[in-house]
């Protein structure tokens, strides 16, 4: 129980730090990275992987410099929400990662999370 409490305090402290640094750099998406992590873990990880490099062919590597995360928050938001297939691609990103329960805020949160976790710039 003692351990659990410490872990929680650390987690809360960390997400506070992440949020603070996000607002300092003028992050436009306004997402909550801690919530986004939950969304990623339940809906996106199967295809995009815990390391963001993709688990199956056709899935982009989020950690690649000047990769898909170089796009604007607005563009990523629309492509996650509506689904996306780049020209010549043999596999599409399903709308909302195939989870119709995700809200717009969930999408903003997960964008903030993947930028902080996997983004290079
Ligand atoms: C069924 C597998 C699958 C799931 C689940 C999935 N994705 Fe994707 N995602 C893909 C594929 C495949 C692409 C590349 C599509 C292409 O370029 O044609 C992609 C592309 C993307 C891109 C790049 C879009 C762009 O503009 O280039 C982002 C960002 C993304 N996914 C985020 C997410 C998030 C966030 C989730 C969870 C809510 C998620 N994905 C769930 C398969 C998936």
> In total, how many beta strands?
0
* Tally of structural domains: 1
How much helix is in the residues?
40-55%
**Main sheet record:** none
- The geometry reads as globular
What does this structure look like?
- With 121 residues, the protein is mainly alpha-helical.
- The chain has one domain (2-118): Orthogonal Bundle (Cytochrome Bc1 Complex, Chain D, domain 2), CATH 1.10.760.10.
- The protein is built from 4 helices and no strands.
- The chain has helices spanning 2-24, 33-48, 73-82, 104-118.
- Helix 2 (33-48) crosses helix 4 (104-118) and helix 3 crosses helix 4 (104-118).
- The longest helix has 23 residues, at 2-24.
- The structure holds heme C (HEC).
Please specify the SSE layout and strand pairing:
Layout: H1 2-24, H2 33-48, H3 73-82, H4 104-118
Helix pairs in contact: 2-4, 3-4
Bound molecules: heme C.
The site of heme C (HEC) has 27 residues, from α2 and α3.
Record keyword descriptors for this entry.
Cytochrome Bc1 Complex, Chain D, domain 2; 121 residues; mainly alpha; binds heme C; 4 helices
Summarize the structure.
The chain has four helices and no strands.
């Amino acid at each position: 129980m003692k351990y659990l409490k410490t872990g929680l305090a650390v987690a809360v402290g960390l997400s506070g730090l992440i949020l603070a640094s996000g607002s300092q750099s003028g992050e436009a998406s306004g997402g909550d990275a801690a919530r986004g992590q939950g969304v990623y873990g339940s809906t996106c990880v199967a295809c995009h992987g815990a390391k963001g490099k993709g688990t199956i062919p056709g899935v982009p590597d989020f950690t690649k410099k000047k990769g898909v995360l170089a796009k604007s928050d607005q563009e990523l938001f629309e492509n996650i929400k509506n689904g996306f297939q780049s020209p010549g691609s043999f596999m599409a990103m399903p709308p909302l990662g195939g989870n119709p329960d995700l809200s717009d805020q969930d999408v903003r949160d997960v964008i903030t999370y993947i930028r902080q976790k996997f983004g290079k710039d």
